[in-house]
Design a protein that fits this description.
557 residues, alpha+beta, three-stranded antiparallel β-sheet, 10 strands, 6% strand, globular
């Protein structure tokens, strides 16, 4: 059943209909055409070495390996939809598995391990309270609302309302494809770290001849091995963690930064095992170094746009503490209770506390610094704090569940409160309550004509919008959607201004066409909707493709 639901969620990313191409996730409406442009540039546009598909001539610094994998599926014969579905399904199953494994290794509690991926995937806050006001606005009651959920209960586009902690499925895993692959790789690294710390403990105890039964339970037959064998195992774990971490820069850059930052802090805490931690840091740096050098050398990205002081993430005018309480619900209070809980002994062991401590920086730093041009993108670091905290909250719920009847009821209520808002968002997705058109039928047909009638590395001018049919062709784009380009740290202003001059047929339009090496120009309803278009100016150029209101003009002879 779980795999069926996961398959359904993966399939909602891109929907193929007779009327055109759609997405079933509103938060994916702006991101999907960009990822399609990346995939098609590799498949149809000979994009090697990779340049930005939405800003011709600029080195492609955006982590693109996830889309490159989909491009390989397309080259092997899969459709665009199937290429994304296959990868998303495989990685999605892996994500659930590694989160469960992470919880199991950390806690050694079966119930808590099961709860961990649920708390991570169905994250949300007190947004479910909006359900009551929604019910009051309709005569059909709660069932009518559930049949037609009017909005998200974890994230709203109006920043003033203060709902910014979006559910992971609708705001991270589906729209941001690099994050979907980056998270499981990072969690595997975290799990290897924890296992290495346990191995290091076993090594010390083995050397002293004081192996304990709890260590035997953690390591099994390895406690009977010599200290040299345990040391070798420790090194292999850190080597594996280093290799996986080193792969992250071109998969998801924020995941790489988070892993390396947390790893450095843990290395300081576990300084007695400095050789093993140095192995991790060196291996990760050696593998990641060439990727980082290639991405940054000669890049059009302004690094200054990524770093700046900004307190409170996206809290706007709301009180900082109330903002985080309403967005995360009971999660932070339960986390604090779990960390301080003590009967005969603390619920969270000293070893787990030391392991968890560096992850608190994933919450503190994004609430102090801007780590991306768009402050909301700080969630790419913040979410790792949530991932590391979820097992601890799950352990508290599991302990309550294992106690008497009223504590079991309390645990069940708190679990529902923690997951209800995220569950409502995922339920709306599962019941297909939204379909958002990206490309109409004529646009899709027009894209096929462009692929047939233009060379693969042609440069095409179109309106600076997020869903131009050119993004389905793999051709070079002078400028795509400024909102995407800005978040990548590229100054698009001068080029956007020149594009408007060209379409208006200004006196220097012909010179600008030559300056940017434009081979073809698209004129369709989208160009007319966002800026003035001088049709008479382009009528002097030969029209090489047309379908409905879509026209393609050849500029260069």
């Amino acid at each position: 059943m779980g795999l069926y639901l996961l398959s359904f969620l993966c399939g909602c990313k891109l929907l193929e209909k007779p009327e055109g191409l759609y997405t079933g996730v509103l938060n994916n409406y702006g991101d999907l055409p960009f990822h399609l442009s990346v995939i098609t540039r590799f498949v149809y546009g000979q994009n090697f070495p990779p340049e930005d598909p939405t800003f011709a001539g600029a080195r492609f610094t955006y982590p693109f390996l996830t889309d490159f994998i989909s491009a390989m599926f397309v080259r092997a014969g899969a459709s665009l939809r199937d290429s994304m579905f296959i990868e998303n399904w495989i990685v999605g199953v892996g994500l659930v598995g590694v989160l469960h494994r992470f919880g199991q290794q950390l806690l050694r509690n079966r119930t808590a391990a099961i709860l961990t991926p649920v708390l991570v995937i169905l994250n949300g806050g007190f947004g479910w309270a909006m359900l009551f006001s929604d019910v009051n606005k309709t005569e059909g009651g709660v069932f009518q609302i559930l049949k037609h959920i009017p909005h998200s209960y974890t994230i709203l586009p109006e920043v003033e309302q203060g709902w910014r902690w979006g559910n992971s499925v609708i705001s991270l895993l589906v729209p941001q494809r690099g994050f979907l692959l980056g998270i499981p790789l990072a969690v595997i690294v975290f799990t290897q770290w924890w296992a290495a710390m346990n191995t290091a403990k076993s090594k010390v105890q083995g050397a002293k001849g004081k192996e304990t039964r709890s260590t035997e339970r953690l390591q099994g037959p390895l406690t009977d091995a010599s200290p040299f064998a345990l040391g070798s195992l420790l090194s292999r774990r850190m080597l594996t963690a280093g290799v996986l971490a080193g792969l992250l820069p071109l998969i998801h850059a924020h995941s790489f930064i988070t892993v390396m930052g947390v790893g450095a802090c843990l290395a300081l805490i576990n300084w007695r095992q400095w050789r093993e931690w140095l192995t991790f840091l060196l291996v990760a740096s050696i593998i990641a170094g060439p990727q980082l050098l290639w991405s940054t050398h000669g890049s059009a990205v302004s690094t200054r746009s990524f770093i700046g002081w900004e307190f409170g993430w996206g809290h706007g005018n709301e009180n900082f503490f109330w903002f985080w309480l309403k967005n995360t619900g009971l999660f932070i209070p339960l986390l604090l209770i779990a960390l301080l809980w003590k009967r005969e002994d603390y619920l969270v062991s000293r070893k787990l506390m030391l392991f968890y401590l560096p992850f608190t920086l994933c919450f503190i730093i994004p609430n102090v610094l801007k780590l991306a041009p768009w402050i909301w993108d700080n969630i790419k670091v913040l979410y790792y704090w949530w991932i590391a905290s979820a097992p601890i909250v799950a352990l508290l719920l599991a302990r309550l569940w294992e106690d008497n009847a009223w504590k079991r009821a309390l645990a069940a209520i708190m679990f529902v409160v923690l997951t209800l808002a995220g569950g409502l968002d995922v339920f709306a997705l599962l019941t297909q309550q939204g379909e958002y058109q990206e490309f109409d039928r004529d646009g899709v047909t027009f894209a096929e004509m462009i692929k047939q009638r233009t060379p693969p590395r042609s440069t095409v001018l179109h309106a600076p919008i997020h869903n131009t049919p050119v993004f389905l062709t793999g051709r070079r784009s002078i400028i795509g959607y400024p909102g995407h380009i800005w978040t990548h740290g590229i100054d698009f202003g001068p080029r956007e201004s020149d594009v408007k001059k060209i379409y208006s047929g200004s006196l220097d339009a012909a010179d600008l066409l030559s300056k940017y090496g434009v081979d073809y120009v698209v004129i369709d309803p989208q160009e007319h909707s966002v800026m003035p278009v001088n049709d008479a100016f382009f009528s002097h150029y030969p029209e090489v493709a047309t379908i409905g209101a879509y026209h393609l003009y050849k500029i260069k002879p």
